[in-house]
Amino acid sequence: MNRRMVMSLLLVAALVMTTVLAGCGNKDSDKVKVRIGEVTRSLFYAPQYVAIEKGYFEEEGLDVELTTTPGGDKTMTALLSNAIDVALVGSETSIYVYQQGTDDPIINFAQLTQTDGTFLVAREAVETFDWNALKGSVFLGQRKGGMPQMAGEFALKKLGIDPQADLELIQNVDFANIPAAFASGTGDYVQLFEPTASIFEKEGKGHVVASFGAESGHLPYTVFMAKQSYINKNEKTVQAFTNAIHKAQLWVESNTAEAITDVVLPYFENVDRDILISSIDRYQKQGSFSVDPVIDEAEWNNLIDVITSAGELEKRTEHSELVNTTFAEKSIEAVK
C-alpha cells in the first residue's frame, strides 16, 4: 500500500469519525433541557430520583438539571424569576402566589407525593402511643404557613388536640435547624421527615411514635408545577416530563424498599443504606408515594381544608383554577 493510499484512507477515516461525533452531538442537543428546583433533598421524593437514575427522562427526550432550593419561598422565587422551569414543592405555594394576584399563575400538573411526609418523634420509645400524651408538652413544630405545619395541625385537630391551646408550640426555628434543635434538648416532641427520623432512632436521639401522613389523609403534598406561560409554550415537554415521572411511579410501586434504595443511593451518600431502606419502607407502607401523577379534586379539597383550618387562606381556590390534569391523564394512557 503506497503512501498516497494510506493518507487517503486516513482522511476517509477522519471524515467518518467526524461525522459520527457530530451525529452524537446532534443527538444530545436534540434533548430538551428542563431545570427542576426541589424544595429539599428528601427520600420523600424517591420517584423523582428514580426517574433520573433509570433514564426515564432521557427516554422522553429530556435533559433534566436538578437543583435543591431549600424552602417553599426560595423555590417559588426561583420559579417566578425563571431560574428554574419546574418546581417540586407543596401545592400551597401556588395558592399563595395566586392569592396575591398574577396574570401568569403557577399550575400544578403532576403529583409526586400524596400524604404528609413527617413523623412524630419523641425522646422516649413507647410501646403504644396515645396522641393525648402531647397535651401539655413542648412541641418543636415546622414553619407557620408551611405544609408540614399545617398538615400536622390539621391531624392534631382531628384527634381532638388544639395545637395552640394544648401544646407549647415552638415555631421560630428554621427548617434546616429543627433536627439539631431537638437533638440539643429543645422540645419533648418534634415533627421530622425521613431519613432524619430514622437516623435519630439509630443514634438514640429520638423514637418515631406516630405518623402525621397516616392521620392527615390524601392531599397534593408535593407536586410538580410550572408557570402557565411555560406550559403554554412547552406542552410537549411538559407531557414528556409527566410521562417520565409516571414511569418512575410505576417502577417504585412494583419494587421493594431495598431495590429503590439502591437506585436513589447516589443522592444520599452520607446516609447508611439500612437507614434509607427503613425510611422508604415507612413511606411505602403509609402510601406516601403517588401511584400516578393525577391531582384529583378530592385531594385538592382536602388541601384547601388543611390551609383553611390553619387560617392561611384568604379565599377558596378551586381545583379548576390551579390544576391541569391533562398531562397526567395522558401519561396514564401512554405509560403501561
TrEMBL record:
Database matches in PANTHER family: ALIPHATIC SULFONATES-BINDING PROTEIN-RELATED (PTHR30024), TAURINE-BINDING PERIPLASMIC PROTEIN (PTHR30024:SF47)
Keywords associated with the record: Signal
Family (UniProt): Belongs to the bacterial solute-binding protein SsuA/TauA family.
Name recorded for this polypeptide: NitT/TauT family transport system substrate-binding protein
Gene3D superfamilies: Periplasmic binding protein-like II
Listed transmembrane segments: none
Domain of life: Bacteria
Compartmental location: Periplasm
Signal peptide, first to last residue: 1-22
Gene Ontology CC: periplasmic space
Keyword Iron-sulfur in annotation: no
